[in-house]
Amino acid sequence: MSGHSKWATIKRKKEKTDAARGRAFTRLIKEITIAARHGGGDESSNPRLRTAVLAAKAANMPAANIDRAVKRGTGELPGVNYEEITYEGYGPGGVAVYMEVLTDNKNRTVAEIRHLLSKYNGALGESGSVAWIFSKKGVITIPAKNTTEDDLMMVTLDAGAEDITLEEDLFRVTTDPAKLEAVKKALEGAKIAYDSAELTREPANQVKVEGKAAESVIKLMDALEEHEDIQNVYANFDIDEKTLEAMED
Questions:
Q1: Which pLDDT score is estimated for 89?
Q2: Residue 166 pairs with which residues in a beta bridge?
Q3: Is residue 50 part of a domain?
Q4: Less Cβ around it within 10 Å: N or C end of the chain?
């Protein structure tokens, strides 16, 4: 689990709500639209679109919504012109924060992000200030009940997987971004069902946060996650289980 952001684990433990589902749909629609805009509407020749559509189906998004998002991206239907931007900053305790954004109003979005960071004792940084900490990786999660570690290693390592870890009831397979599709196909060929497969960013190091700083970091991450323009947010913090349990109580 070296270098893995604690936030990914914490998010899985959070209760699913209708509001969270609505935000997920909004993010997925934006991602489908921009993927189709950049790479065309054919999933077979556009890996980014294929990944986004699979994620949308896994989230039970209606097929009509997916189709409209693709057509907005290809220009067959009118739609909003989203701009892809990344923002970098710092949270409480010197935690590095990296945000991937899709917005139709850059000035509004940066002002709102700056406000959220400041509210929770953080600050917006310059471009390049923390990007070097986060490496792009492919990550596939597989329910442990679906396979054994030995079988998973045999199938995925030959296809290009870099690491396999077990986190509670999920196996987590990490790949080079270019190998994500090959590892997915290997799993499908071996009939090993996976929960999710996505490109993410892994921190090279982690900052230990405790007490009030830990609480502020979680509140900041929640606030950034809820922002409709932020597609993905990554941070290099670590919180020990004892502190987490105390916060949950």
A1: 96
A2: 171
A3: no
A4: C
C-alpha 68 chain-centroid distance: 23
242, part of any domain = yes
Per-residue pLDDT tens digits for 64-121: 999 999 999 898 988 778 889 999 999 999 999 999 999 999 999 999 999 999 999 9
Domain enclosing residue 96, as ranges: 83-132+205-248
Task: Tell whether 214 is covered by a domain.
Answer: yes
Q: How many structural domains are present in the chain?
A: 1
Alpha carbons 225 and 219: distance in angstroms, whole number: 10
Residue 155 lies in a domain: no
CATH (domain of 108): 3.30.70.980
pTM listed for this prediction: 0.80
